Amino acid sequence: xxxxxxxxxxxxxxxxxxxxxxxxxxxxxxxxxxxxxxxxxxxxxxxxxxxxxxxxxxxxxxxxxxxxxxxxxxxxxxxxxxxxxxxxxxxxxxxxxxxxxxxxxxxxxxxxxxxxxxxxxxxxxxxxxxxxxxxxxxxxxxxxxxxxxxxxxxxxxxxxxxxxxxxxxxxxxxxxxxxxxxxxxxxxxxxxxxxxxxxxxxxxxxxxxxxxxxxxxxxxxxxxxxxxxxxxxxxxxxxxxxxxxxxx
Length: 248
Prior knowledge:
This protein is mainly β. The protein has 3 helices and 18 strands. It has helices at residues 64-67, 201-208, 211-216, and strands at residues 5-9, 12-15, 22-27, 30-35, 44-48, 52-54, 68-70, 76-79, 83-85, 88-90, 93-95, 119-120, 133-136, 171-178, 184-188, 192-194, 222-229, 244-247. The strands form 5 sheets. Strands 13-16-15-14-17-18 form a 6-stranded antiparallel β-sheet. It is elongated and about 65 Å long.
C-alpha cells in the first residue's frame, strides 16, 4: 500500500520564477511549492502525497479554503491534489516534523500515514453505480493500488524499455469466477461486492461483455480487474455513449 504520509528528505530547493515569496522543494520525484525559507536541502520533513485525505486538525486548517471536503457518509477532511501555484506544479504537501507527536521517534522513510490519521481520498461512487451490497470485497482478490512513479528509485529503470500508459479516469471494477466452469460470476467495485440487479452498472458491464460465459470456458478460478468508464462515471470524461471496461 502507498505511504500517503512519510518522513522524507528535502533533496533540493529551487527558486520560483513567478513569486518572490515562494520556492519549489524537491522530494524524490515530487515537487512541492512552499513558502520561501521554510525548508532547506537535507531537512527531514513530513511529506503528504496527492490523494491524501487529512483529518480536521488545527495544523491543517490553513488548507480549508481550497481542500475541504465533506463526504456522503458525513466525514470531513482536507483533500490533497496536484495544483498549480503561480503557474508552477505543486504535488502534495510538506510540513515540519513538529506535526509528529513529540513522544514518537521517527526516521527517514518511516510511514506515518496511520499515525497521523491520513486516509486515501476516494471519489464518491456515482449514484448509478450504487447497488445492493453483499459484503466487503473478498480478501483472496487483491485490491489495485499501484505505487506512484515519483516514489520509485530511478535506477530500477536503468537499461530497460519503458512503455507509457494512461490511467483512465473511471472507477475500479473486479469480476471474478470461483469454481471454474461450475462456478458463478461475482462483481466488485473497489471495496464492495454487489448483488446482481438490473440497474447496477458493474453488473450491466458484466452482461454487456458476456464475462460469465467467457470465463467459464477457461474452467479455472480467475479474476479480471480493470477500469469502468463511460456514461455516468466521473463526469464521463471520454464522452462515451455506453459503459466500457478496460482491463489491466
